[in-house]
Amino acid sequence: MERVINNFFNDSVDLKTKKVFFIWANEDWNNNDAFGSNTAEIYNIYDETNFYENSKNLLQYFKHNNYLKIDNKPVFFIYHSHLFNETQLNEFYTILNNMCVENNFSGVHFILNSFIKQYDNFQNFYINFNYKKDDSRFFDEKKNQSFINFKEYINNSYHYKKNTIQTICLDFNNKPRLFKPERLSKSTICVNNTEFDKITFINKILDLYNYEKSSEVENILLINSFNEWGENMAFEPSDKYEYYNLNLLLEYLRCY
Asked: In which domain, by residue range, is 216 found?
């Protein structure tokens, strides 16, 4: 992965005027259903030593012109922020923020996932789909398959949190990466994601951005297109949708 990431910072990829930033997927890779019988473990240790090492590693990318800075602060997200306790989060933020200041930045935008809990002292972001425990998820015993009802999902008010960076996602299917007889029942497939419901969801998300913002960082809108394991979230052109998803999002973004 390091070689892939570095292509964004060594002129191998021409970003034009675009910028990139990191969302750290800090999950532990052990006992993962997608790995079958794999017993290998990769896990994070949240202590002062690792916070310093991680911060030093991040700084080399923060300094690059291709990395997104807002208000002279690098933008940095943590996906599984609930894996930190409050003391660890504050310690990591303090170390990273101080290191940024020492390197002529004004600090760091430290943005945490409110999937599990809301953070009062940091900027929050919210990831869709929350498919594992959502009320719109149901299990069909005859098909031995879990589904998420898109129509119901987008009508659940708790997904829409003001002053929170939001995520748009229009489809989901993680069955391909759980394609083992004893694990198919753990997969989830999105249903009832009609054109009307996609438009409704996009508009609901964009309406949340209609407030007076203190920083451009609050204008960030995430698109969940995680599809390298066949999770069906892709926004790029495909045989199934062609340019539909991209054009749909573009059309409604232009309205705001």
From this structure: 128-256
